[in-house]
Each structure stands twice: as structure tokens, then as C-alpha cells.
Specification:
about 190 residues
């Protein structure tokens, strides 16, 4: 039986950019105003076609996490299920993780003078619940997946503008947007 490897699947066709995922994460963990573990950005693959698509990203729980590699105090570890966990008490605020992560996942808090990041709601998962961001998505655009069994022929490891996925092997998959659809109300 293959080892369970948890990650995210973001269906960009379904995402409406409402930021419910971002706010659910912020509320679940009481994050400061300037700290967002999950962020939603407009996605414009081709500026000549300004369709409204969005990308929702947080820590990608990489197979080869740069944050863990560079942390001088060993604050980052990886669970058996692939979740990259930070021991916040060990963090000394050196910011090496924030500089090393190609995805900007570790966020520095000027108030705490420490870095922190998404931990894939490990306590919620251990209690049998979905991550807060997944549970809050009204369009089901964001899902928790097991990469060892995930099979979506349209899903890709990277999209234009996303850092090179060969660097860290992130545990995220994207379903890129297709041509936009316009809906008009009949007069």
C-alpha cells in the first residue's frame, strides 16, 4: 500500500476569488492582520484575455521543503502523511525559512518576531475534519487530496507564474482554467 501523501487540489475553473479560504484560515488561527497563511491572487495567464480567474495558495507541504533544510534550529519537521509542521516554540525569528521558500509560505510576524505557516490544519485532520480553508470554500474549488491516489487528467503540478515545482516537489495540484464563460440575463 502506497504511503499517504496529503496535499491540496485547486480547481481554478471553480474558484471565484471570494477569499473565504483565506478568511477561514485567518479566523481559525487568530492570525494578525499582516499575516496570511493562505492567499488568493488574481490569475492572468494571458494579459490580452482578462478573464477573472484566481489562484489560492498556502504552504504546499513540499516533498523536499526548503524551510526545513535551512532552519538552523530544526523547527520544521515532516509528518508521515507529508504535512510539514513547524514547532513555533523553537523558532528564533531568523527569517531564513521566509527567504528560502520559493512560494512565500512562511510568514514573519513583526509582533511575535517569529515565522509561522500553514500546517494543513493538522489538529482538525487528526480529529477527522477538513482543513478550515477547504471546509469554507463555497465552490468546492479547494480540496484536500491524497497524492498517492489522486487522479485527475486535467490537473497539473504548476501553472504560469508559479515557481518551478522541481525545486521542492510541492504537494499541490491545479486544474487550470479553461476559456471563460459569460452568462447574460435575457431582457
Amino acid at each position: 500500500m502506497p504511503k499517504r501523501q496529503l496535499g491540496f487540489h485547486h480547481n481554478m475553473d471553480l474558484c471565484i476569488g471570494c477569499k473565504a479560504c483565506q478568511m477561514a484560515c485567518k479566523n481559525e488561527y487568530g492570525l494578525e492582520a499582516e499575516v496570511n497563511w493562505r492567499r488568493v491572487y488574481p490569475f492572468r495567464e494571458d494579459p490580452a484575455h482578462p478573464e477573472r480567474n484566481f489562484i489560492s495558495v498556502a504552504c504546499n507541504h513540499c516533498e523536499d521543503p526548503e524551510c526545513a533544510r535551512v532552519c538552523p534550529v530544526g523547527a520544521y519537521t515532516k509528518r508521515e502523511d507529508g504535512i510539514v509542521v513547524q514547532d513555533h516554540d523553537k523558532c528564533i525569528g531568523c527569517r531564513l525559512c521566509t527567504m528560502a521558500c520559493p512560494y512565500g509560505a512562511a510568514r514573519y510576524s513583526p509582533t511575535e518576531r517569529k515565522a509561522s505557516k500553514c500546517q494543513l490544519c493538522k489538529d482538525r485532520l487528526d480529529a477527522g475534519l477538513q482543513p478550515a480553508c477547504v471546509a469554507a470554500c463555497p465552490m468546492s474549488a479547494l480540496k484536500l487530496i491524497d497524492l498517492s491516489t489522486f487522479d485527475d487528467p486535467r490537473a497539473v503540478r504548476s501553472v504560469p507564474g508559479f515557481p518551478n515545482s522541481d525545486i521542492t516537489n510541492p504537494s499541490i495540484r491545479f486544474t487550470p482554467p479553461v476559456a471563460s464563460r459569460q452568462y447574460r440575463r435575457e431582457s
